[in-house]
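Budget justification note: compute hours in this period were largely spent on complex prediction jobs such as the one shown. Inputs:
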Amino acid sequence: MEREELKTQLKKQIVEFLNLMQVKPEDIKDDEPLFGEGLGLDSIDSIELIVLLNREYGIDIKDPKEGRKVLIDINTMVDYIEAHRTK
Amino acid sequence: MFYFHHITCISPQKTFADIDIENIKPPVENKLLVAEPVYDGIPLGILRRMGKAVRIGVGAALKIAKQNPNGVVIGTANGGMEDCIKFLNQIIEYDEGILTPTNFVQSTTNAVAAQIGLMSVNKGYNCTHVHRGLAFENAMTDVDMLLKENSSHSYLLGGVDEISAYNYNIELLGGWYKKEKIAGVDLYDQNSAGSIAGEGAAMFWASNNEQNAIAKLQAVRMFHSEDENLIADELKKFIEENYLEEESVLFFSGENGDSRLQKYYSASEEIINKDFTVARFKHVTGEYPSVSAMAVWLACYILKEQILPDHFLKYSSSKKDFSKILIYNNYKGIQHSFILISRK
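Corresponding output:
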């Protein structure tokens, strides 16, 4: 899968998994922070995103420190998916 | 008992804003689904995680929670059943592996009361009653006991249940919903088993303060029985104990079109004074375990506004100016309740 195609798919999955009402996948910028000022996600969402990576891409993040480096924005998530996906 | 002050209701009908109980919405595929309002008071980040039962419960409660009640008491048979089933299905689908927390958090029956407490920063008494078709009646009894112990307190009291795919399908298979299409008041004319599904949330601010009250809860009685003669005996005693023989009373019947349950409603109508007006509400609410909460909301509204649209009426007496409403509800032919509401 091409990187841009993966980004589009991931944005759709984030909107669906987190039930982000009033957010369209195409509105999420690649370098927009997922937490805090950007998309405004919180700690429960971080667990939902770890579940998303596990279910959709076969990635198992067990170390919370590793999660912090991955769940920064769409770019960092896609980098990690490309490097570690098992499905 | 106690007084009702603020009352709110999110239901299939126009009961939350621009209230209109005259023009009613008919069921769609035998379901009366709630007309959800715009939830101004719930932040989007929290709203997106809520299942329907939690959403309508919190949405209806927040206006009342602003009155700073001393506690929150909710009656619900199922709570967030839809989320509960999603969570259980995930356990199977993902082989007890990594699971999402949101569905789990929302799936407990006390999620509604908990969210109301959290969102209104109410650290007082917080309790959920789950006695199926008598859940709301038990919540009312709890509030009554609390107010007897703490006469100056006030409580947020409510009843909420949702139609979930799971409970609808199970109840349909159990014969509790009709197979033929129902358009509205024809619900009562089918002579077949089952009713129509409903859902809703009704909330009340309850206290011992008579001043500015909308209505008064005068008495509640609940019991389990399959014997229609016992229902008639209990109703006779209830009427005598509350001196209703000579009163102008509206008998608000939970008749739901299920031919198997008609014997209970017929037996109760045999007992009541012929001067009572008889009205029905299940074509407006649908059938669900905590529907008596919406019946109480309707009773408060009818007493306050002194309007009773014709579609509710079964038999009308010559007396139009009723001051009391006696609700008889029956869940699945075994759980029965009498609730007496009066103008304060």
